[in-house]
Amino acid sequence: MTIDDFLDQDTEWLKGTGPSANIVMSSRTRLARNIDKMPFSNRANKQQLEDVLNMAEDAVRRSGFLKNALFIRLKNLSEVDRVFLVERHLMSPEHAKNAEYKALIVDPKEIVSIMVNEEDHLRIQVMQSGLNLTECWRIIDEIDTELSKTLPFAFSAKWGYLTACPTNAGTGLRGSTMLHLPALVFTGQIGKILQAIAKLGMNIRGLYGEGTEAMGNIFQVSNQISMGITEEDVIDNIERITNQLISREDATRKMLLTKNKEGLVDRVSRAFGTLKSAHIINSNETVTLLSAIRLGVDLGLIKNMDRRTVNELFLLTQPAHLQKREGKLLNANDRDVKRADIVKERLK
């Protein structure tokens, strides 16, 4: 299997299944781990970084859980391939840069991915569709336990797992949910809600994580700290905040249907009409319009279309996916034309 095979399968966050999948697109857990007595990635020399790569590859080969996973050295990939993996949420935008001594480990179902030599030596990630944080934690805990038998992780009895960034120390666990919150955005409530969430010790980020914008009314909510708190508390806190957001978004959707259905139908219809008729369209506009269509599908305002089809378009219309499907580099104008063609074809 190669990364080209991912083009013909659904990545986990596209499936549109699982609890509260109409609002929660995906759940994710991530563990930061470092090799004992080895400098952090930003302090290590070239030989030490290469040693980490070799140790990680050996651990994967010995792993029962990851025995079928791809071990991908990023230096062997084109820039388009690296961005392609970022678009699929398999690695961070930061990991795609300066690729010489970095790797990505991915299981064939794209549920598990491990960044090697990002900010930490290992960033282990598990993703599930819908609100499934507990299942994500179960899987990642099993992988962590297995890898720890082969890799000596840096650990302090006082500070817990040692990480390059102090906010990740302790458990090293970050949990997150990716939520589609168009009703809260349309009604102008989202700003105050996100401010309130931040005061509760949560991070709010955009579609592709840290430093990215909340395109398409999609937000990621995650914990800020992982020290002085148990893994179970991390999961419980994120689930509690996520359930509150689900309740607010759901109530607002029902209010819009009751008090402003005409305006809601108009917004959804205009989005659908634009995407079905556009001959050229950029990525940001596409994601914004798809957000309205996804809401229309979830509320039954658009018939004969399912959530999965809309979710797929969020991904297939991204720049690297367009170029991978075409098998060649495309300039911005050509991508905008091809994007419009794909959307029209899928919305027939």
Mean pLDDT: 93
* Total of domains: 2
CATH fold node name of the largest domain: Creatine Kinase, Chain A, domain 2
CATH architectural grouping of the largest domain: 2-Layer Sandwich
Which homologous superfamily in CATH is the superfamily of the largest domain? Glutamine synthetase/guanido kinase, catalytic domain
* Radius of gyration using CA atoms only: 21 Å
Helices and strands, in N-to-C order?
A: EHEHEEEHEEEHHEEHHHHHH
Low-confidence stretches: none
- The shape is globular
Helix count equals 11
Which CATH class of the largest domain applies here?
Answer: Alpha Beta
Largest sheet: 8 strands, antiparallel
The number of distinct β-strands equals 10
Beta-strand percentage?
Answer: 15-25%
Going by helix content, strand content and strand pairing, the class is: alpha+beta
What proportion of the residues is helical, as a percent range? 40-55%
Order the strands across the largest sheet as they lie in space.
2-3-4-5-1-8-10-9
Termini separation (Å)? 32 Å
Short description:
The chain has helices at residues 46-62, 79-87, 133-148, 182-186, 190-199, 231-259, 261-277, 283-298, 307-316, 319-326, 332-346; strands spanning 24-33, 70-73, 103-106, 112-116, 122-129, 155-156, 160-161, 173-180, 202-205, 218-223. It has 348 residues and is α+β, with helices and mostly antiparallel strands. Helix 2 (79-87) packs across helix 10 (319-326), helix 6 (231-259) crosses helix 7 and helix 7 (261-277) packs across helix 8.
